[in-house]
Amino acid sequence: MQTVNIVLSGLGGQGILFMTKVLAQAALNKGLKTMGAETHGMAQRGGSVISHLRLGEVEGSLVRTGSAHFLLALEENEAYRNIPFLAKGGRLYANASPKSFARQEVKPYLDKMEIVYRAVPAEKIAAGLGTPMSSNLALLGFFSAFEKDLVTHKELRNAIDQVTPSRFKKINFKVFDAGFEMGTQ
User: Are 151 and 23 in contact (CB under 8 A)?
Assistant: First the structure.
């Protein structure tokens, strides 16, 4: 398998590290080598959190600027801030309104770099299910509707089952599946 670089970004408390753990577990379950690193800003105070996940034969844990295949952003401004990580032809998934994402001033760059971008109101999905802190799983479910070659919906669901404490499994599956459904519409 070719190396796959993933950057996950958001704000402290949004569950970036949990989302990274799920993706890493799904990759490990497929027998892929995984390496990751987190860079925390003021995570405890709602500051930027960036997680790097590299799959395949890799030497280092950090994703270089211009080399990420995927960027998953749990906050719209963090999506814009981390676009430089994406390689030409990369894919961006953001927790944002599909109607207004991406901003007009950013679209020429995204088009020039052939970046595919998709947005889903992950926070609204999670809040609608009574668990506003689970927007990470809604975004991951949405991602799984499109990126079947990397990890399937079922593989991610199995990884969620492995890393989620039993008392949260039912709601985590519900939010994850709701995000997936948004992606299949």
Answer: yes
Q: 117 near 90, Cβ under 8 Å?
A: no
Distance CA 45, CA 11 (A): 9
The 10s digit of each residue's pLDDT in 93-106 is: 999 999 999 999 99
Which residues touch 123 (CB under 8 Å, ≥6 apart)?
95, 132, 135, 138
pLDDT at 61: 87
Domain 4-184 CATH assignment equals 3.30.479.20: no
What's the chain's average pLDDT? 93
Inter-residue contact 56 to 2 (CB < 8 Å):
yes
DSSP state letter for 56? S
Report the alpha-carbon distance of residue 184 to residue 169 in Å, rounded. Answer: 22
- Coil, strand or helix at 3: coil
Q: For residues 73 and 45, give the distance between their C-alpha atoms in angstroms, rounded to a whole number.
A: 18
Q: Are 138 and 74 in contact (CB under 8 A)?
A: no
How high is the mean pLDDT in each 10-residue block of the chain (185 residues)? 90 89 95 83 70 90 94 96 97 97 96 98 96 95 93 96 95 97 94
